[in-house]
Amino acid sequence: MENNMTLEKRIEAELYCYQGKMSVFVDDLQGHTVEVGADEEFETASTIKAFLLAALYLQVQRGKADLSEEIEYEQSQFVDGSGMLRALGVGAKLRVKDTATMMIICSDNIATNMLIDYLGLDAINACIRELGFAHTVLHNPLHFDRYRKLGTTTPRDYAALFARIAKGTLVSAQASAEMLAILRQQHYNTMLTHDFPQYYLDCEETGAPELIWVASKSGSMNACRNDGGIVHTPYGEYVIVLMNKEFHDIIEYNEHPAMVYGAKVSRMILDQVLACEGKLWL
To answer: Domain of life of the organism in this record (predicted)?
Structure first.
């Protein structure tokens, strides 16, 4: 390894014993990035839901979708996996915005299929391309017994989505703000936050101001463990995306090697940004 200990080299050292492949993209939103395999193609798993959210808001802006419209959960949309709609049963009706919110905050798979049917798969992909994410595709609805592939993307594309939300330029300033508010409620951000000092994250218990918050969307399938989003600090925001594949253990649990090593890289980036007061380097 070279003597110049760049962030990329430090990440390489951190991952030396990791028996898998991790690609990383970090953007401090001030002109500096860290890129390790940023253009590598990955199965999206549930990270595709963030792109679906963007497509929804683009169609809303055009008058082709309505956040207040009610849509109904149909039997054809049933799928196992994460979410709460299975507990409500077929025939449940939700507003489009509530459906999208459930798709993100508890990664509800049935809600995702409802939105795919509502918008149309071809229209979703057209929106994704129009928004500039040239290497991202939604291949199929979520039906694990029928389709092996859900979507594909790259760390660079996924980071660009969050960077534009952070800057208020994804679809529109209002749409970006609404998407940010939904993504801040997302429940599954272990890879990004597991090694963060809990004092920074837990303002309810400490009584201190919320110094750090995360707006993100993760995704896991047999072939991948992904996470990405916006990390807010007292110095501003940065975007981080971590995507993993080619690991041996397909079981999903918080101490999965991809989660453990991802958390180490995420903490390294947080420490660097805090030390450099909002930048990746001075």
So the answer is: Bacteria
| Whole-prediction pTM | 0.95
Contact by Cβ (8 Å): 43, 258: no
Give the contacts of 233 (CB within 8 A, at least 6 positions apart): 211, 212, 270, 273, 274, 278
**Hey, which residues does 228 pair with through a beta bridge?**
241
Cα separation, 56 vs 62, in Å, equals: 10
Confidence check: pLDDT of 116 > 90: yes
**Is the Cβ–Cβ distance between 85 and 108 less than 8 Å?**
yes
* pLDDT confidence of residue 70: 98
Percent of the chain with pLDDT over 70: 97
List Cα–Cα distances, 233 to 67, 123, 191, 212, 229, in angstroms: 31, 36, 17, 5, 13
> Quick one: average pLDDT of 187-212?
85
**pLDDT by residue (tens digit) across 147-158?**
888 999 999 999
The token pair at 189 is 């951000």
Tokens of 211: 């110094």
Secondary structure element (H or E) that encloses residue 93, with its range:
strand 93-95
Residue 207 CA: distances (Å) to CA of 175, 200, 215: 31, 11, 21
- Residue 78's nearest CA partner among 166, 28, 144 is 144
- Per-residue b/e over 257-270, b at no fewer than 16 CB within 10 Å? bbbebbbbbbbbbb
Cβ atoms of residues 144 and 79 within 8 Å:
yes
Ramachandran quadrant class, 221 (left: phi over 0; alpha: psi -120 to 50; beta: rest): beta
